[in-house]
């Protein structure tokens, strides 16, 4: 617990700012940064100069205390990007600012201290130490910091409890299922008490049901801990479920940054629109987005929260057999109304985004 | 001369080599120079090998002079703690008993002392060299051909300089055995460390481990099975080498075998040979079981 972490907790917390980040892989990457900045494309760089453009011109603010999701398919550069935040990969040019310090300019020792105290990481394939028990694995970050076991073990035990693994302290990772192993990975990261939590496709290797489980675990923990989480995924549903802010990465460039709702309702380009097409919009769009102005006279009796997603509201309204409901804000003050047809329209993917009329007809017939 | 060469000129028939005179001068020059250097530094060489000589003698005396039943029990205890297997302990007891019954106990103890020292030196030198090799690709490029030479060069050949430098006796014997037995230790340490899961190494980096913490906390423990295979191979090769080492004056089972070869003593040859085999099997089973036991955590696999 250095000064930096205490400061981060009490004073204005710092997010992570990524500025003008370029990453080129090859024998002499710095020689090509200017050419890429001047507009040389990925193909030209690859074909003519035999260098690979990993990331280009990334500018991204990752707000403190929020979950920022970086989404992209394999090869989009998302795993490369997250490794820049704790300096596992150094950029060819650009800055990564945290608490007024540039990670890129840190020397080896500073970087080590930064990693020890201010970041923690969860890995896709768990990356647990097979020769250590669950408890010892959870202590790992604290061992590295030089915290004696007498102090680190109670901390580790607490986090093992919190991720739901109480009683498994003396098991070895090999004896646990994938989901349980990743709980250990999460406990190990949390035990570090770092402000930044980097999660590299942390749930991608898990079965769908267990993945949902882990997402819930993460959201519950985050509600209380308010860490600055950077979450990498290739799954848009996961991004929408977890992300306060979502950045979509394609071929090493950011295509769109925004909230889940913004991305679903206003995809920035055809590529994102294609992604969004399959999304369950009822779980993303919130009541406030489609609320109509308050009508004259009496308001509908049923009240729904402005932040509720449409699917939930629709279920409640259907159960209660009402057609309209009042949308209220956090202070329980009415701000508008929603009715069933509006909700249904918003929940169905609009025809303009749908592939063709046939698809729409099939859906309405079904 | 060119008669068998389809009438070709001599240059194309016989491979053009340096003139015999030049070659002779070269050989003599190198040999004399080498001997000269050794003679000039013989005091220093003696001083340097004295601790080794002392350690070897001490251990040999300890093995030979201690009453047989104590050593017998001691070996079984070590085997038990290494393997925790009653079967291996009973096997070892039978092997050792047969060695004693056929009158080879003392020679076996001499050989055992020698192999123990050689293996210890090979591990003490081999482990750090292997670690160094794993950390730097350049080191690996330099050392790989050296190890190739050490493993393929007939051991009789490097006995020559060893004898020139250290004379005849136990020390040159041990050095020859170490040269022969150390390559697997180095190679398998290098391989083991290089095969450690990249993601686990990355995790150690991400938590801010320094190189020392990474080596002791991750790389060595995770490469232990491979390193143990290296130790096992080193022991086996040291045992195989004791017969050759007996040519430079190392006593024990190897010397008996050498005498048996010279005199065509069929029975003595085989008895001593089998004694070596028995020791080899005891060491092998015990060290392998030990290596497996270290990997207890990976046994109860969950897939």
UniProtKB/TrEMBL annotation, chain A:
The EC number(s) this enzyme carries: 7.6.2.9
Name of the molecule in the record: Quaternary amine transport ATP-binding protein
Keywords, alphabetical: ATP-binding, Cell inner membrane, Cell membrane, Membrane, Nucleotide-binding, Transport
GO molecular function: ABC-type quaternary ammonium compound transporting activity; ATP binding; ATP hydrolysis activity
Coiled coil: none
Reactions catalysed, as given in the entry: a quaternary ammonium(out) + ATP + H2O = a quaternary ammonium(in) + ADP + phosphate + H(+)
One annotated GO biological process: response to osmotic stress
Family named by the database record: Belongs to the ABC transporter superfamily.
Self-association state and partner proteins as the record states: The complex is probably composed of two ATP-binding proteins (TmoW), two transmembrane proteins (TmoV) and a solute-binding protein (TmoX).
Membrane-crossing segments per the record: none
Domain of life the protein comes from: Bacteria
Keyword Nucleotide-binding: yes
């Amino acid at each position: 617990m250095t000064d930096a972490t205490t400061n981060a907790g009490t004073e204005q917390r710092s997010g992570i700012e990524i500025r003008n980040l370029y990453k080129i892989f090859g024998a002499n990457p710095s020689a090509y940064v200017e050419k890429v900045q001047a507009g040389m494309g990925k193909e030209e760089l690859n074909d003519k100069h035999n260098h690979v453009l990993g990331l280009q011109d990334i500018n991204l603010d990752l707000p403190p205390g929020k979950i920022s999701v970086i989404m992209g398919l394999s090869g989009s550069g998302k795993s490369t990007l997250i490794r820049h935040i704790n300096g596992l990969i150094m950029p060819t040019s650009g800055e990564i600012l945290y608490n007024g310090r540039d990670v890129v300019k840190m020397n080896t020792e500073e970087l080590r201290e930064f990693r020890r105290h201010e970041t923690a990481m969860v890995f896709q394939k768990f990356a647990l130490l097979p020769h250590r028990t669950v408890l010892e694995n959870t202590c790992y970050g604290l061992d590295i910091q030089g915290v004696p076991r007498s102090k680190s073990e109670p901390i580790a035990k607490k986090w093992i409890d919190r991720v739901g693994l109480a009683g498994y302290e003396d098991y070895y990772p090999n004896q646990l299922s994938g989901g349980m192993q990743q709980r250990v990975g999460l406990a190990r990261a949390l035990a570090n008490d770092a402000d930044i939590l980097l999660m590299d496709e942390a749930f991608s290797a898990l079965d769908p049901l267990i993945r949902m489980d882990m997402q819930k675990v993460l959201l519950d923990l985050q509600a209380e801990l308010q860490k600055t989480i950077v979450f990498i995924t290739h799954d848009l549903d996961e991004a929408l479920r977890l992300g306060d802010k979502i950045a979509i990465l394609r071929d090493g460039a950011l295509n769109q940054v925004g909230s889940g709702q913004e991305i679903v309702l206003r995809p920035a380009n055809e590529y994102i629109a294609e992604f969004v097409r399959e999304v369950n919009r009822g779980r993303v769009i919130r009541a406030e987005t489609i609320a109509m102005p308050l009508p004259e006279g009496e308001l509908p009796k049923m009240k729904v929260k402005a932040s509720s997603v449409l699917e939930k509201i629709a279920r409640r309204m259907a159960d209660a057999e009402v057609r309209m409901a009042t949308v209220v804000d956090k202070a329980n003050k009415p701000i508008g109304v929603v009715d069933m047809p509006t909700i249904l329209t918003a929940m169905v993917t609009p025809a303009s985004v749908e592939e063709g009329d046939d698809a729409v007809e099939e859906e309405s017939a079904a | 001369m060119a008669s068998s060469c389809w009438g070709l000129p001599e240059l194309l028939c016989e491979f053009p080599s340096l003139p015999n005179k030049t070659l002779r001068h070269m050989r003599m020059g190198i040999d004399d120079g080498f001997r000269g250097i050794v003679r000039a530094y013989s005091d220093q060489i003696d001083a340097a090998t004295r601790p080794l000589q002392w350690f070897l003698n001490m251990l040999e005396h300890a093995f030979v002079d201690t009453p047989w039943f104590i050593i017998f029990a001691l070996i079984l205890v070590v085997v038990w703690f290494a393997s925790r297997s009653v079967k291996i302990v009973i096997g070892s007891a039978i092997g050792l008993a047969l060695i004693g019954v056929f009158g080879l106990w003392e020679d076996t103890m001499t050989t055992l002392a020698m192999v123990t020292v050689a293996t210890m030196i090979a591990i003490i030198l081999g482990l750090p060299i292997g670690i160094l090799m794993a950390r730097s690709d350049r080191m690996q490029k330099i050392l790989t051909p050296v190890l190739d030479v050490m493993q393929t060069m007939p051991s009789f050949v490097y006995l020559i300089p060893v004898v020139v430098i250290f004379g005849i006796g136990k020390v040159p014997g041990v050095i020859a055995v170490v040269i022969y037995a150390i390559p697997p230790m180095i190679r398998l340490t290098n391989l083991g460390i290089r095969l450690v899961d990249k993601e686990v190494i990355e995790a150690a980096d991400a938590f801010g481990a320094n190189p020392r913490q990474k080596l002791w906390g991750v790389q060595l423990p995770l490469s232990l099975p491979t390193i143990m295979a290296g130790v096992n191979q080193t022991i086996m090769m040291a045992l195989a080498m004791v017969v050759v080492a007996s040519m430079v004056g190392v006593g024990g089972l190897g010397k008996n075998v050498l005498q048996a070869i010279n005199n065509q003593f069929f029975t003595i040859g085989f008895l001593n040979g089998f004694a070596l085999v028995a020791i080899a099997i005891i060491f092998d089973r015990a060290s392998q079981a030990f290596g497996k036991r270290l990997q207890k955590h990976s046994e109860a696999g969950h897939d």
